[in-house]
Amino acid sequence: MNNHLDSLFNPENIAVVGASNNPLKAGYVIVQNLINIGYPKKIFPINIKEDHICGIKSYRSLYDIEDKVEMVVLIMPAGAIFDVMKDIENRMKSKNDIKVIVCASADFAETKTPEGIKRQNHLIEISKKYGIRIVGPNCIGVIDNVNRVDTTFVETLLPKESRGKKGGISFISQSGAVAASLLMSGASQPAPISFNKFVSIGNMADIDFIDLLKYFENDEDTKVIGLYLEGYSDGRRLINTIAEITVKKPVVVLKVGRSEKGASAASSHTGSLAGSDVVYDSAFKQYGVIRVDTLQELMDTMQAFDSLKLPDDGNVFVLSQAGGPGIYCTDAVSNQNNLEMPIIEDITKEKLKEIAPAMSSICKPEGYADITAAANVRHHVESLKVIINDSNVSSVLFITVVPTFLPQDKLAEKMIDLLENEGYRNKKSVFISIMSGNYVWECRKSIEEKGIYTFASPDQAVKALANMVRYSKYLKRIKGGSANE
Amino acid sequence: MNNHLDSLFNPENIAVVGASNNPLKAGYVIVQNLINIGYPKKIFPINIKEDHICGIKSYRSLYDIEDKVEMVVLIMPAGAIFDVMKDIENRMKSKNDIKVIVCASADFAETKTPEGIKRQNHLIEISKKYGIRIVGPNCIGVIDNVNRVDTTFVETLLPKESRGKKGGISFISQSGAVAASLLMSGASQPAPISFNKFVSIGNMADIDFIDLLKYFENDEDTKVIGLYLEGYSDGRRLINTIAEITVKKPVVVLKVGRSEKGASAASSHTGSLAGSDVVYDSAFKQYGVIRVDTLQELMDTMQAFDSLKLPDDGNVFVLSQAGGPGIYCTDAVSNQNNLEMPIIEDITKEKLKEIAPAMSSICKPEGYADITAAANVRHHVESLKVIINDSNVSSVLFITVVPTFLPQDKLAEKMIDLLENEGYRNKKSVFISIMSGNYVWECRKSIEEKGIYTFASPDQAVKALANMVRYSKYLKRIKGGSANE
Question: Which ipTM value was assigned to this complex?
Fold first, then answer.
């Protein structure tokens, strides 16, 4: 069935049923997003009244399109599904070209009404008859940044130059709103996030977690898989599928319904039984699945996996230009049971003392240096360099609170020189916190545009680091054949 | 001594020793910040070479200024302290006008060198002789937004229209970098934060936590006090001072040095012994001090106290326009042991069913409603209104993930109508999460400009709410004379 998922992420032409010229309609945003991302093949808007949608020739029905159509996006009112499926049926009889439907329309089985269920059953029945796979209904759509496909109706204000960039994160969301929220917040980072593939799966009438996970497992462009999960009918199968993947690549999960109230709300929402959270939780631990608690931790952790070297172990050095934030970070490190601030080599200590400003506090405590606000760009970068070269250090938490007299553009340039051009990012993973707010935005943006993620705050960096170390230890455990984490 | 602190926050004219025309120098930023905030009295830059600094007439020495000078800001190299104190001494002998020194220069006792200690001792000795109070040395300065004083050398990119706005939060930071970071991130919010008073206390050579806390205790403009704390020589006295304040107004503390490593780093940094964190922690609990874990929680909690009604108790209703984020929020609520999602009145349930879109999920589970992505502005606002009117509800977590077809400007307008114009914000506290990123920025900004804080994410809102409920319960406990929280 993988050829159908190929069609989902790289379709030969896309028809949009319910396309609109009204900017407040989802049917407008979908066409506009396809244009904005630079979808290189043909878009066929379907609208019973208009001749053009967003400047593109529009069609009265699917049946009128002469070219091949591999993907059909549905965003018309759900009540029209019977007519639309008739068009599809007629088209399949003659052309037999449609491989996948992305049904973004809502008001199907999720309503739990007889009408909604009937509509969904009809959608499935006709699709099955002709071997068409379905995403949705009641989803916000599908994105593939490599192939420049964006069928979502989410307006993110993503800058044009960021659209269609290739990233290593592929994401599956069981909630359209969580999906939309991640796209919007991801678009608002210093360097906007480019997902590799992004799927809002809605009601999972057909294509579901398992199909997509298996596809992402073998997708070379996917470095890390993210999931937002409410519940799945066959939890055991889901876990088994994930367990096969985590041997190869990390899977980061935000699973809700931890609490009784949350599980009850999830059951009202998704309809499917959430299943015992405790069972999921212990299975996640057993199979090296990284479970996160917040949307922020989800974003940070996925991007860390995508852009930073996996640490060998939990030996992390805290290098701070600022006392307060350094101490704050040290507390956060101590709060993670898989992180350790190591004793570095004497030679490294000596070098640090030579490099850093006179009043620096070196290795008090061990594994920590405060190079003070007197640190210039060279002090920052040279200190980082000798620490990376220390054999007792596996990763570095690097913190700076940029004062007026520290030239940010130079700092970004020299950090990029060290990490990217001299290749130090391949030696150790560096978790960079450049603080704070708009004042340091351009500095962070320059670094992030080189594919090196930066964190808004040291506590966020520590959580992402601890998650990566958790995965690193899991890999060692399964490869070493040991039963203990 | 309070008259000297009045001089700190509302000085009659300010001299800046070490003022500069070089934008990369702190002595430039201080003068520029005073100009930018619109300091209404006179600024006297002191520079031995220049005739004008930032367009303002400059003086060769403090002694040359004819007008009254109540505050002197020092930002020259520390080595010049002996000459500067000679000038101050001469001035005091003839004019006797200086009340307070803000010593922003570093390289004093914090260096732990004999020279640094000598410099600090000299600064203290001469100041004491003439009854001058000192903030610092080694601090980033002082802000009073009511009186339009900003002696900091932090460039925040705060928009001009936000400077000099009056807020209710007064903050004391033992770390200049944490202070700078809070100012920078606060300036980067939808509606930039305006602190009431903001003090970076540096080495605490003279004015310290106790002085400022007592001043803020009686400052009517201060609604909530925030502290960043590393350690204090007389912890018992600090706690007793805070305990007297929390009876009247909330105190929110980010105290670092929780861990052994963190405490060791704090001791290297501040010099003072941190004291046992466990002792602080239990004293905080005993006296209703709100201890937070992260910089984000600190900002959120202070702003919630400043802008939202204190909830009567932990009965919170979760009103979400989006299933996923609603469930996510419900999990976060369940994770707080002082929050409860109440059973609302039958009449409220009926009204909600009438108001909300057909497919809404009302009170499954109790205390929760998902009004779905079909909710228009009226659905949002009317639902919120009937929930606020329910007598079993003390606060509301309000979540919306704005789709393209929901007009954000209207949503902001109607939310403001309800909460501000119709006075519903005085009935119950509403914790608003409008998601996500740049796409909803203007909507959040409109609401925040009315003094109603909005949260970037529901989990952040829940933490701030739980902290407010903690304080509310403390007030009830001490006023009711009960020994149990």
Answer: 0.96
